[in-house]
Amino acid sequence: MIWLFDLDNTLYPYSIGLYQHINCLMNQYLEKTLKLSWEEVDQIRTNYIKQYGTTLLGMMIHHHINPDKFLQEIHSFDVGKFLKKEPALLEFLQKLSGKKYIFTNSPQFYARNVLKILGIDSLFEDVFSIETVNYHGKPNMDAYQKVIEILYTKEQIAFVDDEPANIIQAKKANMKTFLVDSRRKDFNNYYEEELFPKLKGMK
Q: What would the pLDDT profile of 75-84 be if each residue is shown by its tens digit?
């Protein structure tokens, strides 16, 4: 079995506030760059996500932004203010048979930082980031096909994510899927009640 894990709101719960912080920074960036109100930025992001899958791709197409500069500005903050080492997560992933990879719409440097702070970086073979898929992130099918091409495996691929739209596309790509709901779980019971039971017994 090959495991593809999403990062944000999958390997940690939504209640941590990290994902919300990134969204706030992204809104601030767009507000400053496009000189729009907060409400207008929200509408633009909603439209871009609906049409392109990510805010980033919409900004690249319509506003010709530099994607690396965009990602660097939004993700360059102290992730340690939100996360800490999670021994329970480390122990669980160690017991999960098969090679493990991260498949995220976040940039490479940020993803590796999150894994290091959680104390699980050594368990993953590689990180497939937004740069890996040429900024065409999930749920674009091109992103899934690119990762499958890189893996070049005949083994079953298991995909774990918190977004239903991403799960739907993974199913279309013939992956075994696991949808987790981190929005209803607090930090203390997330792993035990949401993530671990979904994957228990998988080999």
A: 999 999 999 9
